[in-house]
Amino acid sequence: MKVFIAGLGLIGGSLALALKDRDLCCEVLGAEADEERASEALRLGLADRIVPFEEGVEEADLTVLATPVDQIPILAIKALNRVKSNQIVIDMGSTKEELCEVISCHAARGRFVATHPMWGTEYSGPKAAVHGAFAGRTVVLCDTTKSDEDATQTIEKLFRALEMPIIYMDAEEHDLHAAYVSHISHITSFALANTVLEKEREDRHIFDLAGGGFESTVRLAKSSSKTWVPILLRNKYNVLDVLREHIHQLQLLRKAIERDDSEELTEMIDRANSIQRIIH
Amino acid sequence: MKVFIAGLGLIGGSLALALKDRDLCCEVLGAEADEERASEALRLGLADRIVPFEEGVEEADLTVLATPVDQIPILAIKALNRVKSNQIVIDMGSTKEELCEVISCHAARGRFVATHPMWGTEYSGPKAAVHGAFAGRTVVLCDTTKSDEDATQTIEKLFRALEMPIIYMDAEEHDLHAAYVSHISHITSFALANTVLEKEREDRHIFDLAGGGFESTVRLAKSSSKTWVPILLRNKYNVLDVLREHIHQLQLLRKAIERDDSEELTEMIDRANSIQRIIH
């Protein structure tokens, strides 16, 4: 299989490595808007050749869109405009509703499979690509009833070969759950970093005391705005909904602390503890 | 050296293991309020003998207070009431201001060294004790001018043997920085867990999608209320101050998302990114 990956950053680059490591493709073509990133990707072995987008789509059996989510809908249309009936296009973005709407009436809609692998790190760009990504993580396939059966099957086989459990959702449902479980975590982490940078004027103290739990909650705050501004804005209504609830939960904790209400605080923390029945 | 540890949970138990692993003591005596935990601690080899608190203090060269912080001031007084001039008492708690005030006029104040090792996990109780804890993490010594020189030196030597860099703060300063860097992270994480548990009614989705960053930000939400309610209430004013700023930062992000203000959002995320110059 010849694979064309548009966007050779954290996600696209790590996919390239995974496909090569497992001998799942004969050649990886890549596209990168930025020239420096393009040569970096080549140097890191993320792609065998850098090609213009249109050429990549035409030549490859599988086109993978792994750019920031604001670029995906247009690239999806451009790719579908060029695919033949034996070719497949997928995306790997974190939001799906707008994308699936934009491509819904395209004559070649069946050749598209919308996917979201639940893997990532706080780093970005070609240098962030790592070996061994994806394995063991869930991948969400969205609106598969709109995809041709053979296209879905090929993609299912591919993700199974990457050892990824597959789940199915419609696009709307996906964006809702992604807001609840992934997008809010990033907002929390950005806000926490800014809080500490605002309040704690001495970097040295942050560094020395970070062992007390700060590192894990703030890790995602290193994530790039290029990736995350589009995600937060494309999933605006779900994100705002869960963000309002999050602020509300913080207010409840604040009020309990103000009142010295150890009973209420205990109850809230014990409730939070129950997350361990789900996340081990 | 004979060491007596009051509280054989995560911190006290891990200290016992570290002292034994490095041959830094000949015998560990322990005290545990709860009988079941006491026999668990013995079974896990965290202590050689369980003794009553008063007996432990009298017999040991070094008494370590590793209980929840609300119990530490009284235990500190009770220990200091019994120590002779060749014995030392330390605590390992996350708040220091109240403790240091309570012991400030005690005749044996010089035998006390207030310490806060910046290490922990989200687990608690004797079973949470692990080998290899503390090494490489900073330990804060507070108000050392109030401690006898020989006592401070002995404790410095002990922490150096555990490979812990030592920093010095007064108690007030410690509580401020601990609120900014450690305590707020726990609040954020508790609130995030409750947000997701509130909004996401299907556990299965949380589990399947958690790869998207949720796990790291919510890890601390497993921390026990027995440990954390006392910390948050004993450090109330600092905690409230930083919590108000955190809510404010979340409101700023919320407003930028509401306004589709990608420029402002980018700026806020880029600012948050700068945390990586401190936390790698």
For the largest sheet of chain A, list the strands in their spatial order. Answer: 3-2-1-4-5-6-7-8
**Structure classification of chain A:** alpha/beta
Helix content of chain A: 40-55%
| First and last CA, distance of chain A | 37 Å
**How many helices of chain A does DSSP assign?**
12
Mean pLDDT of chain A: 95
β-strand amount of chain A: 5-15%
User: Largest interface here, residues on each chain?
Assistant: A-B, 93 and 93 residues
Q: Which residues of chain A sit in consecutive blocks of at least 5 with pLDDT less than 50?
A: none
The biggest sheet of chain A, with number of strands, parallel, antiparallel or mixed sense and barrel status, is:
8 strands, mixed
Order of helices and strands of chain A: EHEHEHEHEHEEHEHHHHHH
> How many β-strands of chain A, per DSSP?
8
Looking at how many chains there are and whether they match, the oligomeric state comes to homodimer
Shape of chain A: globular
Radius of gyration of chain A: 21 Å
